[in-house]
Amino acid sequence: MFENSRESRTDLSEYGEFGLIDHLTGNFGITKEHTLKGIGDDAAVLDFKDEKVVVTTDLLVEGVHFDLSYMPLKHLGYKAVMVNLSDVFAMNAIPRQITVSIAVSNRFPVEALEEFYAGIELAAKLYKIDVVGGDTSSSTSGMMISVTALGAVKEEDVVYRSGAKPNDLLVVTGDLGAAYMGLQILEREKQVFNVNPNSQPDLDPYAYLIERQLKPEARQDIPPLFKALDLKPTSMIDISDGLSSETLHLCKNSKTGVNLYEEKIPLDPSVISVCEEFQLDSTTIALSGGEDYELLFTVDQGDFEKIKANPNFTVIGHMTEEAEGMHLVTRANQKIPLIARGWNAMKKED
Amino acid sequence: MFENSRESRTDLSEYGEFGLIDHLTGNFGITKEHTLKGIGDDAAVLDFKDEKVVVTTDLLVEGVHFDLSYMPLKHLGYKAVMVNLSDVFAMNAIPRQITVSIAVSNRFPVEALEEFYAGIELAAKLYKIDVVGGDTSSSTSGMMISVTALGAVKEEDVVYRSGAKPNDLLVVTGDLGAAYMGLQILEREKQVFNVNPNSQPDLDPYAYLIERQLKPEARQDIPPLFKALDLKPTSMIDISDGLSSETLHLCKNSKTGVNLYEEKIPLDPSVISVCEEFQLDSTTIALSGGEDYELLFTVDQGDFEKIKANPNFTVIGHMTEEAEGMHLVTRANQKIPLIARGWNAMKKED
């Protein structure tokens, strides 16, 4: 993944308020086609031509959303961008710009913020977006990150959560549950480290899970793939809180029910084996783990031919009439109510 | 100003994560002309038609930017919006939408957040903007607010910080220093209260100063006034950090010098009298106090006729060649270097 950490330590106070922003964002260029003015004025000026603008924002709070004892700051910067871009892709839009604001206590040296912004910069480069603004502030304790992403989409291409119809197929990209199990691995290693700081864990078997937790990728390949397939989903959402919660959002917004088939949920083999190791039910993890940043969408049954052979997509169920309710169909062919148990809820209850 | 505080107290945990957002933002409507989709999907969808998009964002951190012991939450919500709208007006643009994210510890009851959002809602109504998104999170301590504002402007109307030329007139709206002196009054009353909680201060003589601190208004009247006067400033910035700091920004970005005349700086009589009471120099306060949210701009000398009789505007100086440097011309007709001493710096040094 990333190389990390530097030796030197420069106090934040060595830069003035404006000096620090200039220092951290000075090498962020802009693409003149979509961004007329980036950082350095009261506001950025953007050109969306004849496209509509999508905007989304997310907060990441230390101690709530991340733990710096195992989250390197460069990864954190990268992930803070992904969380937002995933929402842009979930509208079937293309991200164009982000703003990044952070509040940090002065226990963070300048080098730490440089690492954080290196992650932002890498994400911006790989996802072809401009960093056009932001704010930095001291905080009385801990670190808080606020990212806002703007994207562009033609009005006829926008996909909302609300367009699913009964009999539409429910489809998901990639596989689920890996990011949550990566978090369990990291939490376990933290406990081990607290007991024995000299332990040298072998994390190789868990590389995929840890990467899904620390360096998730938003599905920038999917909106162009839909274009190439001449496919417009009827509804779409990204999976941040867990498959069950997001499925219920689509149902609620579209006024439909759903049958979701347990046996169809795509799981990486390492998720299955690590769930066994932790004595956790892999279906529960896939339904409620969250942080997958995959896309969940519905398509008309007539579009099945366009997706059936594509390895990016797994059909996991179908929408029903609202009155039929929202159900998980188990491997034993039992229908049980689908309930929302996002990772927040899991944390509280477990 | 606002009525404030309620008796009841509902714990944040009584609402789920989504329930809380719905509860707080449920009555925010949208203007269909500029906002196709507001709160309730992965992202909002906005229509800027043939106009360019300006975007700006600001953080407000408890203990750094505000003190809840004298800042009512409804005012705080209102001010968080103003801080951002002021940046939009400084681009000569019209604000259209905002997103509002807050992180709060669970010492805040739901009623406190309702007060905060009531201030947001009032600002949105009075400034004709839509609240189109945001995020709420718990925090391990204190409150943090992140607002992003989007505005619209025709490309030919955008005013940057960088367009001033030598001999352009330097002009400011309104009067300066009042918000800073309002803060001094509030800080003094807090000290008095700490010593004697039963004291009943008479704040009437300070009403203007306190209102400028607690309920600032961004200058939404100015961009339309420029239109009506057929006037386009050559450069513009809003005054958040103080007149000296913002003047230096215009000079630096425009590659000019400046002569700023002390005797021309517009001061409210109450600023002068309270500066005497506190034994502070009113010029220093106007130059470095900040939080005025007035607009500072430059115009070609040929446009003087358009502004000279307008009570909104005060000509306070003129730009010079860069090599002449940046100076304050005192009442004694001495030229002294203009230095940036924003309120952050003042706080540290005083």
Automatic annotation (TrEMBL), chains A, B:
Associated pathway: Cofactor biosynthesis; thiamine diphosphate biosynthesis; thiamine diphosphate from thiamine phosphate: step 1/1
UniProt-annotated binding residues for substrate: 65, 291, 343
Domain of life: Bacteria
The entry's keywords: ATP-binding, Kinase, Magnesium, Metal-binding, Nucleotide-binding, Thiamine biosynthesis, Transferase
Binding site for Mg(2+) 5: 241
The UniProt record lists the keyword Transferase: yes
Binding site for Mg(2+) 4: 42, 56, 87
InterPro entries reported in the protein's UniProt record: PurM-like_C_sf (IPR036676), PurM-like_N (IPR016188), PurM-like_N_sf (IPR036921), ThiL-like (IPR006283)
Binding site for ATP: 117, 134-135, 161, 240
Note: Reaction mechanism of ThiL seems to utilize a direct, inline transfer of the gamma-phosphate of ATP to TMP rather than a phosphorylated enzyme intermediate.
Entry protein name: Thiamine-monophosphate kinase
Organism lineage: Bacteria, Pseudomonadati, Bacteroidota, Flavobacteriia, Flavobacteriales
